[in-house]
Structures are given as structure tokens and as C-alpha cells.
Amino acid sequence: MLNRRNWVVSIIALLLLASLAACTAAPVAVPDREIAIDVNTALEAQNKAMGLMSGDVNWTEAEFSSLLSTLLQQNGGANSPVEAVKVWFEPDNQVFIQVALKEGTLPAGDTLDLAGTVGVEDNHVVVDLQQVGAGNVSVSGASLAPITAQINAALADPSLGVAANVATDTGSVTVGDCCVAGERGCWLLR
User: Is residue 19 one of the residues assigned to a domain?
Assistant: First the structure.
């Protein structure tokens, strides 16, 4: 007959094995295209963003990554662990993100890598993460649901603004003017 202590140990072992089963020793594979990040490219991307009021804007990976990295550096302050963010775009709204962290931020490495898709639900941008990794360890599957839910909750903030089309292609993202509510590919901006 099993006593309570054995049940607790068995349940803890089962939970530990289930969580470790979601982890793999393979890093998230990001595209091998080089992305140069610099302030001048960020300024060009910011100037392009002004075009959102009158139509479509197309950013290259370097423009989007430079703009995002510069904004994070300016608004994050000295205590921000993020040094840069590189974003690769592939067809069908696939996105790969590599966050370069300050040395020693994570014990598993100095990058945080994400792979997934971006879409729209109820006029809000949503992400569907398929894989997240740090160093040589990655997590995929159902264990990403809480992370995805937190990101999508932040993206559902009504202060993000008006709906627009979003489409990715190899090396670029296009953000367009207003679209029909509920249409796939809409993104809220303000």
C-alpha cells in the first residue's frame, strides 16, 4: 500500500518529467541572414512610420530591428538587460526574434530566441509562439501557452490604436492602412 509521502514524491517526479519533456537540447534555429543594427537605419524606419497615416509601410529586417532596438535602448534605461533585438521575417507571417542580452543576464547564454507567427484576432495583434530558447535549451508545445497568453494580453491593450494589415515576406514586413474588423492580418497601431 502506498502512503501519502510516496504519492507526493510520485506526483512531483511526474511533473518534473513532464516539464523536462518539453525542453530540448536544441537551440531555436533563426535564419542565417545578417542584420545590421544602427541608429541611422532606425531613423529611416521612423521616417517610414510616418507613412502609416496615409497608406502602407514596408520595413526591411534591418530597419525594423534597428527601430525596435533603439526604442528599447532609449526607453529601457541603464538597468535594461536588452542590448539589441533582431527580427527575421518569413512568408505566411512567420517571425523569428533574437534578443541579445547583457552578459550574465541568463545562465544558459546571452540570447533569447523566439520563433512563431503573428496574426490578428478581434482587431488585436496576437502571437503564436512555437519555440522559445536560451542558449542550447529550447521549449516548445503546450508549455509556451502561459508565455503566449501574457504577450497577447499586453498586445490587446486598447491604447495600441487603429487596425491595419500586416503581412510578412522573406526579409520584410508590410504594415498597411485600416482594414475590415476581424480580417486576418489586421494590426492595431496608434
Answer: no
d(CA 99, CA 35): 13
Q: Is residue 95 part of a domain?
A: yes
What is the spatial distance between Cα 111 and Cα 100, in angstroms, rounded to a whole number? 5
Closest by Cα among 72, 65, 124 to 96: 65
Along the 190 residues of the chain, how does pLDDT read in single tens digits?
A: 444 444 455 555 545 444 545 555 567 888 999 999 999 999 999 888 877 666 778 899 999 999 989 988 888 777 888 899 999 999 999 999 998 988 888 777 788 889 999 877 776 677 899 998 887 777 888 888 888 888 888 777 766 554 466 788 999 988 765 444 444 444 433 3
Q: How many helices (H) and strands (E) does the chain have?
A: 4, 10
DSSP string covering 112-156 = EEEEEEEEEETTEEEEEEEEEEETTEEEEGGGGHHHHHHHHHHHT
Domain count, the chain: 1
